[in-house]
Amino acid sequence: MNEISFAVLGTGGIGRRTLEVSQYRDGLIPVAVCDRGGIAVDHDGLDVGELLDATEGNVASGPDEVDDDQDTVTDGGVSTDAGGVKQTGEGAGVVASEQGRPTETPIDDIIAKSDRIDAVLIALPNLEHDFIPRVADRFAEAGYEGVLIDVLKRSRVIGLLDERAETLEDAGITFVCGAGATPGFLTGAAALAAQSFVEVDEVEIWWGVGLRSGYEDNRGTVREDIAHLDGYDIETARALSDEEIEAIVAEHGGVIEFNDMEHADDVLLERAGVCDVEDVTVGGVLDVRTDEKPTTTTVSVTGTTFDGERGTNTFRLDDDTSMAANVNGPALGYLKTGVRRNRAGEYGVFGPAELMPRF
Ligand SMILES: NC(=O)c1ccc[n+]([C@@H]2O[C@H](COP(=O)([O-])OP(=O)(O)OC[C@H]3O[C@@H](n4cnc5c(N)ncnc54)[C@H](O)[C@@H]3O)[C@@H](O)[C@H]2O)c1
Q: Is any ligand 1 atom within 6 A of the Cβ of residue 75?
C-alpha cells in the first residue's frame, strides 16, 4: 500500500498517543494536527517527537485565557481556569510546539489543507452529540475526498452519521465510525466471535482501564465516562467544572464502575447484522490511581450453533495492554482499511464490525 498522509483533530490523551503509535506503523505520515488553540501542518511529515515533547503534560483542554470568575463552555465541557492545565511551555497544547501556530479556527484551517490529506482521525471530545457529525459536514461541504475516522462512544451518534451517509457518499468520503477500543476493536472481536453461531443471544463487553495519568491527561475520556453514572447525563457532565470532576473521581476513591453504558457497540453490531441492539451490554471499571487494569477486558458472545449447541466464545485482552494501545492500534488499523476502501471507490459510513483493521 502506498504511503498515507493523515491528520489528527484533537491532541489530548488519545490524539497524542495516536501520533506516537503511528510511528510504529509502516507508511503512515502525520502531516497535520490541531487542538482547540493551535494547528501544525507539514506535508512532508511532522516531527512527532518534538510535538509530543512540547505537549507532554501540557494539553490544551480548555481555552487559553479564561476570566477566573467566568466559566466558559467549550466542546470539552466547562473549564474554570486555564491554570488547572499542567503547562510546561509557552501556551498549552500544539502552540507550545515550534511547529505549531495559534488559530481561532483550528478545524477549518485543517480543512483548508485537506486536499493533500488521505485520512483524518477525529480524537475530539463528543460532549455535544452532533459535534463530530457536524465536523463531517464541514469536510463534505469543503469538497474533501478522503477518509474520516472517529473513536466516538455514544450509540446515538451513529444514527446522526447514518443520516449523512448519502452526503458523505456523494462527496467521496469514507467515514469509519466508532473505531477505538469499545466501540471499535471489541466490536470487531464480537463480530468475529459470533461467526460460530447461527443465532446470537447476547454480547457482553466488560472493560478495565487503569490510567495513572488520571483526569488531568484524559479529560474527554473521563468526563464522557462520568456522564454514564447514575444522576448524570451528557449535558450535566458537560457542565461540570474540572474541580467537580476531580471531586467525583475522589468520592469513588479513584475507581469508578460503570454498568449498562450507552456504547455504540450495540448499534454497530446490529447494523452489521450480528445481533439486536438490546442483546448487547457494555460496562467496565476505570481506575485513575494506577496504570494496572482493575479488571480484565473481555468480550463474550453467547449463541447457538447450527447443530443446536449453545456456547460462549470469549475474547480477552491481556491485562498489560493499555487503553492507549487498544484504542490507537485499532484506530490506525481501521484508518488504513478506510483508505484502501476509499481508494477503491467505496464511500459512505462504515462501522468496525464491517471491516477488518490492517497493519
Ligand atoms: N472508543 C474508545 O475506545 C475510546 C477510548 C477512549 C477515549 N475515547 C474518546 O476519545 C475522545 C478524546 O478523548 P481524550 O481523553 O483524548 O480528550 P482530551 O480532552 O484529552 O483531548 C481533547 C482534544 O481535543 C481538542 N479540542 C476540543 N475541542 C476542540 C475544537 N472545537 N477544535 C479543535 N480541537 C478541539 C482539545 O484541545 C484536546 O487537544 C473522547 O471523545 C473520548 O470519549 C474513545
A: yes
Find out whether 107 is annotated in a ligand binding site: no
Specify the DSSP element, H or E, that contains 290: none
Spot the catalytic one: 3, 98, 228, 243: 228
Indicate if 224 belongs to the active site: yes
pLDDT tops 90 at residue 86: no
Predicted confidence (pLDDT) per residue in 220-279, tens digit: 889 999 999 999 999 999 999 999 999 999 999 999 999 999 999 999 999 999 999 999
Catalytic choice (216, 224, 270, 354): 224
253 annotated ligand binder: no
> Which residue's alpha carbon is at the smallest distance from atom 26 of ligand 1?
36
User: How big is the CA angle at 234 (ends 273 and 282), to the nearest 5 degrees?
Assistant: 40
From ligand 1's centre to the CA of 14, what distance in Å?
6
If we measure between CA atoms, which residue out of 301, 298, 268 comes closest to residue 285?
Answer: 298
For 17, phi and psi rounded to 5 degrees?
Answer: -70, -30
What is the whole-number distance in angstroms between the Cα of residue 296 and the centre of ligand 1? 24
Give the start-to-end residue ranges of the domains of the chain.
Answer: 4-182+324-350, 195-319
64: pLDDT strictly greater than 70: no
SS3 content of the chain, % helix, strand, coil (to 5): 35, 20, 40
In the residue annotation, 43 being an active-site residue is answered as: no
Whether ipTM exceeds 0.90: yes
- pTM of this prediction? 0.93
Our answer to whether residue 153 is catalytic in this structure is yes
Q: In whole angstroms, what is the distance from residue 72 CA to residue 65 CA?
A: 10
**Eight-state DSSP code of residue 173:** -
Superfamily for the 4-182+324-350 domain: NAD(P)-binding Rossmann-like Domain (3.40.50.720)
Q: Which amino acid is at 228?
A: H
The answer to whether the Cα torsion of 269, 292, 239, 248 is positive or negative is positive
